[in-house]
Amino acid sequence: MTTKMLLIFDIDGTLLLTGGCGKVALEKAFEEMFGIADCWGDTVPHGKTDPAIIDAICERLLGRRLTGDENRLLRDRYHELLRAEVAITDQYRLMPGITELLEHLSRREEIFLALGTGNFELASRIKLERGGIYHYFKCGGFASDAGERPGILRHAIRRAEKITGSPIPKECIYVIGDTIHDVRAAKTVGLRTIAVLTNHSQKEDFRGSPPDHLLKDLSHIPAFMACLDGLYSLKRIPF
Fold first, then answer.
1. Which of 75, 56, 233, 50 has its CA nearest to residue 152?
2. Residue 227 to residue 95: CA distance in whole angstroms
3. What pLDDT score was predicted for residue 231?
């Protein structure tokens, strides 16, 4: 398999939004198991992986982390409820231009598409299948693999290299995300970045860790391809 470039996409806020289905599903699962309603409270999800969110909630409300068996039970129930919530919500939407971009990229033999997300692997599939875009991604790194985002990205790279049968140089790997956490994780691993100002992000949000490229969204395919060709920079933002 000939691959010259690996593109690792974040999910929430980059590819799609579910309108809070994950929060609703987790709160229902937590109440069923522990009898505590509205467990989410003031938890801020941005930048946190699914396990980190669960740990934060449990430490705040239970004063401890879950046992292995409790974790498995909560995760299984969360996935069941998430599937149901995603199926019925009218708040679900793909971000602008996503289907068209993924279709374009999938036709390029030199490009390999993967995921790098703080979601559990099954949660990722549930969210992507609703929008009809799951099949574009051949592998990924998930919160089921590692507790921190750099580790998640490393898993995505290893799986992509196993499928392609050869190492992929870091300068040929781009991480595409909507928060500074995506950018910081990519820089930790030594990867290039394309940030998008979707899901209420602003240019100023990235001052602490500027991406290699910054786009308003992913609806303009020529602009995205220019980023991959090194022809687009922070000084040429089209807005």
1. 50
2. 19
3. 60
Per-residue pLDDT at 235: 47
Structure-token pair, residue 141: 């790194």
CA dist 5 and 7 (Å) reads: 7
In this structure, the answer to whether residues 73 and 114 fall within a common structural domain is no
Terminal C-alpha separation, the chain: 38
pTM: 0.92
Domains: count for the chain: 2
Range of the domain at 72: 21-88
Measured CA to CA, the distance from residue 111 to residue 71 in angstroms comes to: 36
- Round to whole Å and give the CA distance between 73 and 70: 5
Query: Taking each helix axis from N to C terminus, what angle separates 50-61 and 21-34, rounded to the nearest 10 degrees?
Result: 40
Query: Per-residue pLDDT averaged across 58-68, rounded?
Result: 95
Between the CA of residue 48 and those of 12, 14, 106, what are the distances in Å?
A: 12, 15, 29
Provide the pLDDT for residue 97: 96
